[in-house]
DNA sequence: CGCTAGCTTGATCTCACTCAATAGCAGTGG
DNA sequence: CCACTGCTATTGAGTGAGATCAAGCTAGCG
C-alpha cells in the first residue's frame, strides 16, 4: 500500500476509506537515483510526491555553493505536499538515496479538498508537522552545541523511523555520510567526525557504515535534551522513543 | 477591517466575499499587554488568533531558561492558525508589545473549511508561508555570520512591514531591544550591539530607540544575501524590498 | 592493483561568547 | 528638585568551541 506509512502512529491514523480515496489520487509511481534533484527552487510545480522508499532531503543552496538541509524525509512522508498551495518552492527537493515516490497531481488533491474536509485537515496537519520540525531545527541550531545537535538529530531520526517500523527503537540504517549529517546540523564533516567519536567513547551510540546503534537511549536523549512532543506521535510511541 | 492585512500583497489577495466570510468567523477581539504569554506550549487550544495591532512572537524555551524565537508576527499575520489542525502547540506564543488580536474559534474555521475550498486553500497557504519563513531562519542560522544574520532579519522585517504599509521601504518602527534581536538571530545582546555599530559605521543602516533606518538598502540586501522570494510577495513589491 | 570517496587525526586560527565595568535614561518617591 | 532604581546600551579584555588547513588512512570498485 502506497500510503501505508502516512500519518502512521501520529495522533490520528487514517481510516480505510480515507486511505482508498488518497490512493485513487495517485497518478503513478516514479523512481529517482541518489543525488538527483527532483524539484528545483522556484520552478512551478503541479504535482506533489509521497516518499515510499529511500530518503529525500529538502535544502537551501547558499551562494558559496554549500547546501543546508531544512528537512529530511523518511518513507511515508508527503515530501512536497506544501507545493499544492505554494505552487513554487523556496528550496530544492532531492533524493539522498535511490528512491521510489508516488505522484499526486494537484488536480486530484483539489478534488479531495472539495469532497472530504476531514481528510483535507489531515493533509494540512502533515504540512504543519513539517513546520513543527522546522521549528525544532531552528531551536537545535540556536541553542545546542555540536554534540547535542548530532545527538538530537539521531534521537529525532530514531523516533521517526521507529514510528514507521524502520527502527527497532535502538538500531537503524541511516545511509548518510558524515558530511550529510554536517549539512543537517550545520557542522563541518571534520567536526561531525569528532562528535561521533565522542558519542561512541561516551557509550551513547555508535554510527558506522550507515548503521546507527544507540547504546544508551536514555543517556542520548538527556544529552540532546530531546523531547519528541513536536513529532505529535501517539503517547506510547513517544514514550518509547525517549525512553521515559 | 480586521482582516485588512491578511494575505495583503501576497501572490493572491482575498476577494471581498472571502473577507466577509472570514470576518464572520471572528468571535471577538482581545488585547494582551507586552510580555504576556498568550498560549503555553502543550496546552490544548480551541481558538486561533489573527494579529491586528502590535508584534507577537513564537518561541521555544531552552532548559537553561533562555528563549529562542522561531517566528515574529506583524499585523495581519494569522499567528497561530496552525493550532486549528495541531490542537496543541509545540512552542509558546507571546506578545512582544501591547497587542490587539481577533479570535477565531476552531468551530468557525471548520465551517469555512466545509463551505469554501478556495478560501481554505488560502488559509492553508498562510500556514505554509510561516513554514517557508522557518526554513529561511534555519538557513540564516546555518550559513550566515552574525552581521549577515542581523542584516537579513532587518531586510526581512522591512519587506514584511512594507507589504502591510508599516514601512516606507527604508524606515520603520521596531519595538525590540537588542536582546530581543539576539533571540531571533541567536546572538548575545553584547554581540548584537557590536553588529549594529558595524552596520551603522558601514553606512548600511541605523537602529536606535526602536527606529530602524536603512541608509543603503541595496548594500544591506547584498551583505545579508537577502532574496525575498520565500515571502511569496507579488513581484513589484518583492523587487522594491530588495532594491532590484 | 590503483583510484576515489569517505573517515580520521593533528595544528592553528577566529568569531562570537563570557565576564566586567560604565554610561544613559526613564520612572519613582522623598 | 535630586537621589535612587532598574533597564538598556556600550565598550574592553580574555576565552573557547568549532572552523580551517593539511595529512594520512581505509575500503570498495573498475
CATH superfamily of the largest domain in chain A: Jelly Rolls
Helix content of chain A: 40-55%
Question: What is the gyration radius of chain A calculated from CA atoms?
Answer: 18 Å
Biggest pleated-sheet summary of chain A: 4 strands, antiparallel
Strand order of the largest sheet of chain A: 2-6-4-5
Task: Provide the low-confidence segments of chain A as ranges.
Answer: none
The CATH topology of the largest domain in chain A: Jelly Rolls
Q: What is the CATH C-level name of the largest domain in chain A?
A: Mainly Beta
Label the structural class of chain A.
alpha+beta
Range of strand content of chain A: 15-25%
> What would the average pLDDT of chain A be, to the nearest integer?
94
Name the overall outline of chain A: globular
Helices of chain A, by number, come to 9
* Total beta strand runs of chain A: 10
Which chains share the greatest interface? A-B, 44 and 44 residues
Q: Would you list the SSEs of chain A in sequence order as H and E?
A: HEEEEEHEEHHHEHHEEHH
Describe the protein's architecture and organization.
The structure is a homodimer of 244-residue chains. The first copy, chain A, is of the alpha+beta class and 244 residues long. Chain A folds into two domains: 16-135, Jelly Rolls, CATH 2.60.120.10; 143-241, Orthogonal Bundle (Arc Repressor Mutant, subunit A). In chain A, 43% of the residues lie in helices and 20% in strands. Chain A has nine helices and ten strands. Chain A has helices at residues 16-24, 83-86, 106-115, 117-143, 146-163, 178-185, 189-201, 217-224, 235-241; strands spanning 28-32, 37-39, 47-53, 56-61, 67-73, 92-95, 99-105, 171-173, 205-208, 211-214. In chain A, the strands form three sheets. The first copy, chain A, has a four-stranded antiparallel beta sheet with strand order 2-6-4-5. The first copy, chain A, has a three-stranded antiparallel beta sheet with strand order 1-7-3. In chain A, helix 5 (146-163) crosses helix 8 (217-224), helix 5 (146-163) crosses helix 9 (235-241) and helix 6 (178-185) crosses helix 7 (189-201). Chain A is globular, with a radius of gyration of 18 Å. Chain A starts with 15 loop residues before the first helix and ends with a helix. The mean pLDDT of chain A is 94. Chain A binds chain B through residues 11, 42, 58, 60, 62-64, 66, 68, 70-71, 82, 85-87, 90-91, 110, 113-114, 117, 120-121, 124-125, 127-128, 130-132, 134-139, 141-143, 186, 225, 229-230, 232, and chain B through 11, 42, 58, 60, 62-64, 66, 68, 70-71, 82, 85-87, 90-91, 110, 113-114, 117, 120-121, 124-125, 127-128, 130-132, 134-139, 141-143, 186, 225, 229-230, 232. Chain B binds a DNA duplex (30 and 30 nucleotides) through residues 145-146, 177-179, 187-191, 193-194, 196-197.
